[in-house]
Specification:
single chain, oxidoreductase activity, 6 helices, NAD(P)-bd_dom_sf, 5-stranded mixed beta sheet, Rossmann fold
Length: about 230
Amino acid sequence: MEFGKDIGRRITGVWKSRLDILINNAGIGVKVKECTKQNFDLYFGVNYLGHFLLTYLLLDLLKKSAPSRIINVSSHAHIFVKRLPSLERGDLSGKVKYPQLSGYATSKLANILHAQILAKKLKGTGVTANSLHPGMVKTEILKNNPINSKELLRIEIYRLLFKYMGRSAKDGAKVVIHMAVDKSLENVSGQYFENLSISSGNLSRLAKDLNFAKNLWDISLELCNAEL
């Protein structure tokens, strides 16, 4: 979240005139520690909440620059979330806040829901918001060993899949660039893409729950306002 605040303020300070495209792509695939500096689950804080805060800080500039686009890089892995996580506040004196919002797949589900609620809130402003799965891309996202030894086998399997079946980072980037510049997508908003096309059929049932998306927005805004 510190990164999100810092980048947001730098952008609004340096690029005061316009911002045409915001791509929320930074993320981790392996936990190297349990939580962020603010005591949020590491996946939730890095893969989702930091993006939420950065986007929130840049909304006025994006509206001013319309037509403009917000692109959340998510993952097909969101389908592995089988039930909606609880948004109950719980015990904030504990080590990790909102422990129910944990796991890589949950953070990717949150990216999709974020784009969907943004699309509704930004309707009529000229700013679009979409999410995408770039495919299995060979990057360094799994380079660290997990802190939990029980996850080690799963991570090693994924590493082999990425190595032998993944597309290059260059090819993965082409998918994101297409979303950013293709003129046919200028008025498309609130959609989830796979393989360069709208892929609502691959959205999980949970990724279509707009009531949960709204509640997640409200909670995220509350958390970010506490950090501003």
